[in-house]
Write a structure and sequence with these properties.
The chain is an all-alpha fold and 93 residues long. Helix content is 66%, strand content 0%. Helix 3 (31-46) packs across helix 4.
Length: 93
């Protein structure tokens, strides 16, 4: 059952949209890379890429990591977002 489901394009796209919804519920650009990887894998399967389960999982993993790195570069930590404390609230003035 699972092996036949992995070879269908719509299963990958549904997984991508589910991960996109999970990203909305838990923001932080963690699940968005996986969502992009799943949608791209679904598109490749939909266009007729003849690949088995190991190849599809490898494509999903590689595209997800690349998408995550691109998102990290584009949306990552902004300048001045990290606060460095010079003194503690418990220090005497």
């Amino acid at each position: 059952m699972l092996t036949s489901l992995v070879g269908t394009w719509w299963a990958w796209v549904v997984l991508g949209f589910a991960l996109g919804v999970l990203e909305i519920l838990a923001p932080g650009y963690i699940f968005l890379g996986f969502a992009v990887g799943a949608i791209v894998t679904g598109a490749l399967v939909g266009f007729g890429l003849p690949a088995g389960l190991p190849a599809l999982v490898l494509i999903f993993a590689v595209v997800s990591v690349v998408a995550w790195l691109v998102l990290r570069r584009v949306v990552g930590v902004r300048e001045g977002q990290v606060k460095i404390w010079d003194r503690d609230i418990n220090d005497k003035p």
